[in-house]
Predict the structure.
Amino acid sequence: MKVQSAMFYFPEEVIEHIFSFLTHHPDRNTVSTVCKAWYKIERLSRREVFVGNCYAIRPDRAAARFPGLRSLTLKGKPHFADFDLVPPDWGGLAGPWIEAMARSCPNLEELRMKRMVVSDESLELLVHAFPNFKALVLVSCEGFSTDGLAAVARSCKSLRELDLQENEIEDRGPRWLNSFPDMCTSLVSLNFACLKGEVNLKSLERLVCRSPNLKCLRLNRAVPVETLAKIMNQCPNLEDLGTGSLLADQFSEAYVSLISALQKCKKLRCLSGFWDASPLCLLAVYPICANLTGLNLSYAPTVQGQDFINLIQHCVKLLRLWVLDSVGDKGLAVVASACKELQELRVFPSDLFAAGPATVTEEGLVAISTGCPKLNSLLYFCHSMTNSALITVSKNCPNFTRFRLCILEPRKPDPATNEPLDEGFGAVVKTCKNLRRFSISGLLTDQVFYYIGKYAKALEMLSIAFAGDTDQGMTYVLNGCKNLRKLEIRDCPFGDGALLADVTKYETMRSLWMSSCDISLRGCKALATKMPSLNVEIINEWEAEMEENLNNGVAEVISNNNNKHINNGNDERKVEKLYVYRTVGGPRTDAPDFVWTL
Amino acid sequence: MEEMQPKLLDLIPNERGWGVTANDREMVIGGGFGVREEKKLELRLGLPGEEDWNANRKKTEGLCANVKPSFSLGLFGAPQTKQEAGLVTGEAQKIQAKADKQTSIVERKAIAHAATPPAATPLPSNSRAANAPVVGWPPVRSFRRNLASTSKTVLKPQKWASGTCAKFENSTKGLFVKINMDGVPIGRKIDLKAYDSYDKLSSAVDQLFRGLLADQRSEIGTEKNVEEKGRAIQGLLDGSGEYTLVYEDDEGDKMLVGDVPWEMFVSTAKRLRVLKSSDLSASTLRTTSRKRAATEC
């Protein structure tokens, strides 16, 4: 029995050391559930926390559990908020999180947030509460201005990373760049490409001059070629560059200077920006193309046709490419022949509304799949798609982990056969065993969901729009996709039957979004009653009814404004938007009027 | 209410929809036009592929050609789709229910059969209507969407002058605020960015509610139907009329419209109300936001 007692006694330090090799947060979550001792060791030694839904846990509780936290990642609004399906003021406030961290986690160094609402005051608090703060990454956030950025710049003693991706930032002037103190020399990554306003160019140049460690710099459109050339001359070690406006006169000194500056940047691997790129400026980029691994031309509608072809054919080591569909099937064919290492491709629609000639079609995608067998991540907006093309693509590229196809016209069938695209998407799930993320479009019946439920065992996130026939479609998915974490549905004929088909499933998932489907208040209430561990939130503007009731004196003002409307009898009303998520934090305390937690 | 439809179409820039949800009337909300379920309007912004609905309808794509998706109407989905889909699949569900009882394994043919309504119809020949905007479609992030509409213009350098108000950069986005009128149960939304002066706003409000108000009155049973309809709502701004326009600012205070410079008004107004002038002094004292009312209770 000596052996047994030796095994029971295991020094905490050793366990902690072992845990330090566990970086994958699901693994850490798992070990913390083994026993109380491990829970305690794990929580005290945890340095990074990922909260996929900021309402899944109360900020105080998370902060208290992990006092040694150095890095926090938070996601707020549901994904469909990106497409304006979530009303403003819905929530996702960063303030309570920053405050909670300020109270309990003084060692915080990094904060990454996506789809959250951050105020300038919160940013102020952030930089004053955490003396070691080093990195701020904001993606698709809003609620702050350049004043907030100034606060961050001003107060961070050793800021390494300020990364702003596609945020809505109120422009209060270019002075925020001046706020970086002269002694701030620690910058490694600065991305302000999403800023719409002017930038103080002199400050920018000075900042770059005193940042010898700068590896990633993404400028906004307001930065002209002259400044870019000066900057490039200062940072020959730059690895990731987002240009400003590339409009330049070919005979200008700036242009010449840019060419020579770029040639010195031997380490440059990733390029983006290309605002207003003139074909001439593209010429300047040719010498460095051969080493590029990442290229983002999706903000550059001017780069198309032969210009694009001339550029891309040099990019033989490219791994990631983002383009607009204006490059056409022809352009994609050149990509397929040149970029044999390609792993990720995104083709965005260049014109959302007018119906010009079709720009990319299934042909472009087939060509890519033929030429780039390593492709594993796809986002493709096109005008049409056929089953046979999809079947070919999946045969050529069985390694897809992310496959998102958006046919611009909802419910469009296969133009060659007039059939739904069930078989095509079915082929993708059958062949791509590692598929984690899937978005489907076009004309689709319940059959495609049958395939998804049957084959997509690794699937974690599914986005559906304008698809399916009956509740059975959604039920297939809920029953079959064992690893499903996020399900988002819009404009599908799924009703209460589907919603309630497997209510315990939602506890295994992060969230469910359903909008413009066929669910009723009755169904949502039933879900809420059966599953108290979920927040069942509906977003509705039954305003007219409220006004009518107020005017007629029908409804009394009950303590909770919401109850008046939820319980006034008519449960058959259709619910326009439903957001369901598992939580240990209980109903939201910050829900606005139009969000009703059942 | 037919005569109202053309007025709204004229008034509401970019054909932004407005919505009413009532038990017996179903209105289309979102990037479309208000329709009644029982009235099959030709102007239905139905989704392409809804062939049962589109079959007999002319595609009036011209109305949709320049419409941008209504960003700030993200509140509203596309219920017309849901209703259409619901009606189309209602039959499908009945067929499906039978099929389910008969076989445990869903046959592909059964599904295809049930799904005949959408699948059997030919491709819409008019692909322009096909690209008529639906809220949030195609699924492109707002940030990129805004860029798509401004990408053709080179950014003009702005002179930064201290003391000017912060300008909102999204000049292409609308700025929708709710507007309610005393005596009219149904609220509306109005795009402040569509106007550049108080006079234009006042006239738009007049147009917006004139017909509604007249209908309210005629429903109550006055005899002056014909003259009532189309009686202008005047004097909104100076207190001289029967109604006065007020707004709620970002601090929740009720203010008379017209006091501050237009730009400042646009940037701080959160909600508009058209009040009876006689009620004015009493109502300005009362807290107006529902949130406050709710928390006080």
Notes: Chain A touches chain B through 93 residues (CB under 8 Å).
